[in-house]
Each structure stands twice: as structure tokens, then as C-alpha cells.
Amino acid sequence: MTSFPRRYHITTFGCQMNKADSERMAGILDDMGFQWSENPNEADLILYNTCTIRDNAEQKVYSYLGRQAKRKHQQPDLTLVVAGCVAQQEGEALLRRVPEVDLVMGPQHANRLGDLLDQVFDGNQLVATEPIHIVEDITKPRRDSSISAW
Prior knowledge:
The protein is α/β, with parallel strands linked by helices. Strand 3 (45-50), helix 2 (57-74) and strand 4 form a beta-alpha-beta unit. The relative contact order is 0.18. The protein has one domain (7-128): 3-Layer(aba) Sandwich (Rossmann fold). Strands 2-1-3-4-5-6 form a six-stranded parallel sheet, sandwiched between helices. It has helices at residues 16-31, 57-74, 85-90, 92-97, 113-121, and strands at 7-12, 35-36, 45-50, 79-84, 103-105, 126-128.
């Protein structure tokens, strides 16, 4: 893994729930010591939060992943995460299609991002799509705007 400060970028596809999940995951990354990068090409960790409902989001995420997979061959420390509904739906198939991805996680695992990334940083490639029961959401979101929740 690269030395601190590590930078992250999140691209959100789709619905308002995805936007809320992205803000929660950004808060987790902030708490882990990462810094936000507006430019994905300057980030050490790229997270695509996906949607299966909205306009061709699945095709878009695979297009974006293709570009970053090429970059990962030049920068092996780059961490690629796919979260959300496409990740949930595709699971292991996503890894077969884009083996450079480090973590595939369904939306129910958004609160576990830190724990899952710790395993990735230990050298594991993970798929977290199993159902879980979330008792309480105590994550602090990183809001893009102080005016609206989404």
C-alpha cells in the first residue's frame, strides 16, 4: 500500500440511496485516514457505487473499471472496489470479468467497508454479497453539501 496520505475517489451511479451509501462510505474512508480526490486518476483507492435500475449504469461501471484495470497494471497498489446493486447482482462473476477488482460488496455491507478493506490490504480479494442484518448504522457520512441530505 502507498504511504500516507492515501487518497480515494468515489463515483456514484444511480439512486438517492446510493448517494447516501457513498456518503457513509466516504465518512469511513475519512476516518481511516484517506483524503478525498476529485480526480480518480490521482486516487489510491477507487470505489464505484453502482445501481442496476438507472440508465446503463452497469455498462458505465464496466467501462470505468476497464480504464482503471489498465492503470492497476502500472500501479499494483491501486485498490478497486465495486459496491452497490451491480456488485450484489454480479458477485463472483464481476471478478471473473474484471480480475483487477479487489473488493465486490453489496449495499448491505456499506457499514463494513473499513473491515473489508483491512482484509483487502492484507492481500485478500473479497466478495461480500451475503445477506446480513444491520442492527444500527453509526457511521458518520461525508456530505457533499450542507444543504441537502442527498
